[in-house]
Write a structure and sequence with these properties.
SP0561-like
């Protein structure tokens, strides 16, 4: 049996993505916070580590819609998958969510002042995330493919220079979504919430779930393997 306590939570999810379901239920960040050990996280959050270990050792009991073994994929395919599965969805969903949030502020903002703060925070995501994704699509991902294809020194230099700022951007965007989660009380719709309120919070929750997987794929799988290309 593995020593799960000393393993990084990001590595645990990389080995078996079903672990993400366990971490989500426990409020454990496995994407931006993936470099922490399970023991560190459990101590910080005052979680029952023995109970989490038991669940992680019995992942066959976990029902997950995502059983894909991303860690075995070729890097060029993983780049394309991230663009098609996550980037394109982000481009479509961001303006919709921004419009819904602005509407909620107008209609419900007087009774729920947290909506204005949520809308302001999401506006940051709406601005920063597309810029980040375009940089990956136009510079970083092509450099990975070029390094794979030709072992280009220039492509390797681009890879090396891009990873640290991209991880910083992940921290910014992920931390902003975490704040929205707290302000919305984990997307709990108040009693006076209308259908738009319910739809917006449902979309925000789905956006957060997708973002966690998206960032996990990059921080814990794509970036480390891309760095290995530069050695």
């Amino acid at each position: 049996m593995k020593d799960l306590r000393s393993m990084k939570v990001g590595d645990i999810v990389t080995e078996d993505f079903r672990a993400a379901e366990i971490f989500k239920r426990e409020g454990i960040d496995f994407c931006c916070g993936g470099n922490q050990s399970l023991e560190q996280v459990a101590k910080e959050k005052n979680l029952n580590i023995a109970e989490i270990e038991y669940k992680l050792n019995n992942l066959d009991e976990v029902v997950s819609n995502r059983q894909l073994n991303y860690n075995d994929w070729n890097l060029d395919f993983l780049c394309d998958y991230i663009v098609n599965e996550y980037h394109n969805k982000v481009y479509k969903l961001l303006p919709q969510l921004m419009a819904y949030l602005n509407k909620l502020v107008q209609v419900h903002g007087a009774n729920h002042p947290e909506l204005k703060e949520i809308a302001d925070l999401f506006s940051l995501v709406n601005t920063e995330l597309p810029i980040h994704q375009r940089q990956e699509e136009e510079v970083f991902f092509p450099a990975i493919k070029e390094a794979l294809r030709t072992n280009s020194v220039q492509a390797k230099e681009i890879i090396t220079s891009q990873i640290a700022p991209m991880m910083d951007e992940h921290e910014l965007i992920g931390g902003t979504i975490d704040k929205i989660n707290v302000l919305s009380k984990r997307y709990s719709v108040p009693d006076d919430g209308c259908n738009t309120y319910r739809l917006t919070y449902k979309l925000l929750e789905e956006f957060e779930d997708d973002l966690h997987t998206h960032v996990h794929l990059e921080n814990n799988i794509l970036y480390p393997k891309a760095l290995n290309l530069t050695k």
